[in-house]
Structure formats: structure tokens, C-alpha cells
Design brief:
The chain is an alpha+beta fold. The chain has helices at 12-17, 25-28, 63-67, 101-113, 126-135, 158-174, 186-197, 220-233, 264-277, 296-299, 302-315; strands at 35-41, 47-51, 76-82, 90-98, 120-125, 147-155, 179-183, 207-210, 238-243, 248-254. Bound molecules: flavin-adenine dinucleotide (FAD).
Length: 328
């Protein structure tokens, strides 16, 4: 089962309700791509089964996909039928270092266009990796450059694994990569992934907000440039990491010694606008919830918002499910 959000405590019901993505989305897609059927308790107390173990099913309107990602606002998911897959036998974790985000972000669309689909393609500002490793009592293996791309490559044969790693390094070198390291034993791969997963840890006490925008992968370099210009304009420190292979970047807007900076709401809104300008989204995987619903108008015209409100009313006329999530 390929979906792996950074939150190791996520439950299946929550992952369906939040339509979770995570590091492996670039190869395997998101939660929606692996759900075949749901048992749902409606706000009226009735129980319905939506979907079936079928590849093709065009009868009626697809209510199952309406429930996926609805953040608990339409029904309670009590059973999930998932599609499972055979596991690839060989995996390697490749770290490629660059002097700047421009070179790193420009390399990624070229890798994808070459037809190579890694299990994960992550971008990490070096400062985050160093701090995360320190907090875990270990070290980050890269020293040259300032930012890293982390590729997890998983293939059915060892030959394919190494030839794809070589192709990735070749493309990165054309984009001025300054170093590359491959980890092919399980222990080292787990250690690197643990450092990546702990990225939030060292910043926990001084984060104003974590952005979750996504843009089409070809627009990643433009989006990064905009975010860096905005950081300068608002005089704020922003560190970034993210699932760059699918265009989803998490920018950490840092606080003022644990306090919310005065101008952070305006900065946040400008980052959202930049994502939407490039055909992107305000939130790729963390969801609308209570805090992003005020930004719905940035992404949707009034008609679409009215349709969503109508659907909520139809499912939950008394507004008893997840009050305040997505809808007022
Ligand atoms: C450190 C960290 C890293 C994360 N990394 C990622 C990531 O890489 N990718 C990603 O997609 N997300 C990520 N997330 C967000 C989140 O963890 C995931 O989206 C996850 O799917 C939530 O699952 P949960 O079981 O914790 O749900 P909860 O957080 O408990 O609930 C999430 C929402 O779903 C609703 N809900 C929960 N269970 C049900 C149910 N059975 N029926 C109906 N509604 C329900 C809740 O009301 C709530 O609105 C991360 C979160 C953290 C804290």
C-alpha cells in the first residue's frame, strides 16, 4: 500500500477523509487513487456503501470520490476497501546537492520528462536537514552545496535501479549539481528518511505557519522565485522543503522568537496567490480545514463555492459533522 504521509500516526479513515498524499505521490498518486469502496455513516444515521471492487463503474454519479477529501464534513468513514500492489524488490536513496534552489528546481522537470518516475523526489533546504539530523543525534551526509534533492528510487531489478540513478545524476549534473551520494542499504535509507520526516521537529517552537501549496511541476522554479521575493519583501525568514516531484512545496514561515510576526497573514496570502497564478492550489494535502477556508475565493469562483455549500447542505442539513471545517 503505497501512500505514506509524513505523519506516522495517520489512520486509514483520516487518510481517506484528508485525501492524504505524501512522499510517494509522484509515483503512486494520492489516497484517492487507491480507494475502491467506502462504508459511510451519514449524518442521518443511515449507512451507505459507496464504490466497489471494480476498475470500470460508470453507473450514476461517483459519490465515493465526493467523500474522499471531504474532511469529515459529509459522513463518517467506517470501512475502506483499498487496492494493494506487489512491492518492488530493489530500492536506493539518492542525495544530489546544488549550490542554489534555482539549479535544483530546474533539474526536476527534466528528470520527469525523461520518463524516470522515482518513488519520491524531495527538495530540502540544507539548513533543515542539518538541524533535523542534529535533533535526532545524527548527521546529514552532504556537505557541498546549500540545498539537496532526495530521490527514492524503487525498481523491480537492480540493473534498472542503478541505471535510473545514473540518469538522474547525469541530468542533475547538467543543472550544475555539485555532489551526489547513493545509499542502498536499508539501514542508511531509513536513517535518511527519518531525518527528512523530522524536518518539522527543530522548527516546532518557532513556526508561524507551514505552507502547502502545489503548482504544476514545470512551474516549480517560478513559484520558488516568487516565494523568495516575497520573503525579502516581507523581511521574513522562510525555509523550504517538499514533495517537489509532484509540485507540492512546504514553506515554513518562521516566527519571531515563537511569536506570530505581524505581517504573516499578508505574506501567506501572497504565497497562495502566487501558487494559484501558476495554475496551482492553496493546499495540496493538508486540507482546507478551519484556517484555509477564508482563502477559498482565491481559488474558486462563487459558483463553485455555492455548489460545494449545496452539497454540504444536502448531506448534512443540520451541520452536525465537523462543524467549521471547509464550510462556515
Ligand atoms: C508531521 C506531519 C506530517 C504530515 N505529512 C503529511 C504528508 O506528507 N502528506 C499528507 O497528505 N498529509 C500529511 N499530514 C497531514 C495528516 O497527517 C494527514 O493528512 C493524515 O491523513 C491525517 O490522518 P489522521 O488519521 O491523523 O486524521 P485526523 O487528523 O484525525 O483527521 C483529519 C480530518 O479527517 C477527519 N476524519 C478523520 N477520521 C475520519 C473518519 N473515519 N471519517 C470521516 N472523517 C474523518 C477529521 O474530522 C479531520 O477533519 C501531516 C501531518 C503531520 C502532523
Amino acid at each position: 500500500f503505497p501512500v505514506h504521509p509524513g505523519d506516522e500516526g495517520a489512520q486509514v479513515g483520516g487518510m481517506v477523509a484528508a485525501n492524504a498524499g505524501g512522499t510517494r505521490a509522484v509515483k503512486h498518486g494520492i489516497m484517492r487513487n487507491h480507494v475502491k469502496a467506502l462504508e459511510v455513516v451519514l449524518p442521518t444515521g443511515e449507512i451507505v456503501t459507496l464504490g466497489a471492487k471494480l476498475l470500470k463503474n460508470n453507473m450514476g454519479i461517483d459519490l465515493m470520490n465526493l467523500l474522499i477529501g471531504s474532511e469529515g464534513t459529509l459522513g463518517i468513514i467506517t470501512k475502506v476497501t483499498l487496492r494493494l500492489y506487489a512491492k518492488n524488490k530493489f530500492s536506493g536513496t539518492l542525495l544530489v546537492s546544488f549550490n542554489n534552489y534555482e539549479d535544483a528546481t530546474n533539474a526536476v522537470p527534466d528528470i520527469l520528462q525523461e520518463g524516470i518516475t522515482p518513488l519520491a523526489a524531495e527538495y530540502i533546504d540544507r539548513i533543515i536537514s542539518i538541524k533535523s539530523a542534529e535533533q535526532l543525534g545524527t548527521t546529514w551526509p552532504c556537505s557541498k552545496g546549500k540545498v539537496d534533492l532526495m530521490f527514492i528510487v524503487e525498481e523491480p531489478t537492480e540493473d534498472l535501479l542503478y541505471s535510473n540513478c545514473e540518469k538522474i545524476v547525469d541530468i542533475c549534473e547538467k543543472h550544475n549539481a555539485v555532489d551526489s551520494i547513493v545509499a542502498d542499504n536499508d539501514k542508511e535509507q531509513r536513517r535518511l528518511l527519518e531525518i527528512r520526516s523530522n524536518a518539522y521537529g527543530p522548527y516546532r517552537n518557532n513556526i508561524a505557519d507551514i505552507m502547502d501549496a502545489a503548482v504544476p511541476p514545470s512551474k516549480i522554479p517560478n513559484f520558488f522565485e516568487d516565494v523568495n521575493k516575497l520573503a525579502k519583501k516581507y523581511n521574513r525568514e522562510i525555509v523550504s522543503l517538499g514533495h517537489i516531484g509532484d509540485g507540492n512545496i512546504h514553506n515554513f514561515i518562521l516566527g519571531d522568537n515563537g511569536k506570530l510576526p505581524e505581517n504573516y497573514e499578508a505574506l501567506k496570502e501572497d504565497i497562495y496567490k502566487a501558487a494559484v497564478k501558476y495554475g496551482g492550489t492553496v493546499t495540496a494535502e493538508h486540507g482546507t480545514g478551519k484556517t484555509r477556508k477564508k482563502h477559498m475565493e482565491l481559488q474558486f469562483p462563487p459558483k463553485e463555492i455555492a455548489l460545494m455549500n449545496g452539497i454540504k447542505k444536502l448531506f448534512d442539513p443540520n451541520g452536525i459533522l465537523s462543524p467549521g471545517n471547509i464550510f462556515d
